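User: Hello, can you help with two protein structures?

Assistant: Certainly.
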Amino acid sequence: MSGLTRHFSFSILLGLSLSLLLPQSSALGANPTTELSSGPVSGDLIRGTTYPSVYYLGADGLRYVFPNAKTYFTWYSDFSTVKQISDDALGQIQIGGNVTYKPGVKMVKINTDPKTYAVAEGGLLHWIESETLAGTIYGGDWSTKIDDIPDAFFTNYQVGASLNDAKGYQLDIVKTGTVDVNDDKNLSPPAIFTLTSSGYSPISFNIPLGKSVRFVNHDTIQHTATADDLSWGSGTLAPNAEFVHTFTTEGTYTFFDSYNSRHTGTVYVTPSD
């Protein structure tokens, strides 16, 4: 097991945040400083003008940050497709979380855990129980395909069953089974409530567990979407502003407009398929 549990040293630069490694805007692509005329869309790589951190815009309307360069380069070979938007536009897109390693590209480990893991869809980790198995799955150069990830980022992953047979992790299938970050995180377009002087439209939605809801203020005055039990809320939404909330527990969720408490709505969260 010594080969699997050894600590691999990497350049300090590779351990730094992706924001420190990103080239200057002039090197990002053909027109990296051109603001998108119609706004970014799902699947776009985006960044602001002040800070160079790169985000993936998910289908759920949230932005997901690449926590470091090593994570980014499991998904992309360069920064040529990164699109720049204004800091204000970026700030209006809520953060959904961190991007995890693309399944099948690298094995991962952390300093405080001697085990080496294969990465599956959704950041699910499987401990590879032997060097022999690692070689069977990843080939003779398997030891060069291990990345150390900072302990702080390990919380982005979940540990599943260990692997004691190559049939449990067929590399070609794993690699082709996840197309992009949307696919990896099982992200889908949110259900949309619009807010106007007449209230919420529609007044209710039935959604599967894990799906997001987007509240969009289409009025000329301020509104909110505030949980009846105050457990979540949009805060004040100015005209054209929006708020995304993801429901992670089944149940019935009622909410109201703090600026007009007669306006109410309900989300019914049911088990996912």
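That covers the first. Now for the second protein you mentioned:
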Amino acid sequence: MKAPATSSSNALAEDLARKDYLRVRQHPRWRDEDYLQLKDLRDWIAACAAEMSGQVFDYGCGGAPYTPWFDHCAQYVKADVTPGVAVDRMLTPAGLTEEATGSYDWVLSTQVLEHVADPALYLAECHRLLRPGGRLLLTTHGLIQEHGCPHDYQRWTGHGLEELIGRGGFQVVSAGKLTTGVRAAVQLTHHAIAHLRADGRPLLHYPLAVFRHGYRWLALPVLNWFADWFTAQARVPGSDPASLYVGVFVLARRQ
């Protein structure tokens, strides 16, 4: 990871400190554009957090929205390249840590890898931080729009992520896909509709703006409600044939 420029860093820190940033990740609602992906991600992290104990290092914590899920752990250390009220440790400009080797039982990485210019280096640092037998819980994106924070470098397939983590000296314990099938189709439709624009062409621009506004306030929550019936598609194992999915996850053990 590379540290953002100072102005970008300050703007990002302010964004991460907003109450709505935490609310939408901890308690997403049907009216939220990213309700489906954030709900599925939250539920998976909460389920895994319940099994965690000991020393946990949140590597690229952002605004640390999942902090309440780790209150039972002996230590929960939050680190990022961007300063903020939730950050305990600042990473180096290269995105590395200054923590002692083998000092953690768990490394948590949620929606970070897509923003890392050198994923192999990042995973090597995850490996170094863990004690022998320590575990890595990592989630990242499958299909989703580009979103710089300040940079956005790549996307992953389920098998591709497993292969990468396996090469990093980890044994994959479990892996899977998040927000699949109908849930993925609805989530991606929300973002597709938001991009229906015709700037500079008033005869198209204004009708599209009216359509986007109506979709946002009526169709979006209804479709989220509808997709919520497909609970089995919120999370599936990596072996599942689902080819449309918004997120991927891996739980791995340091060998």
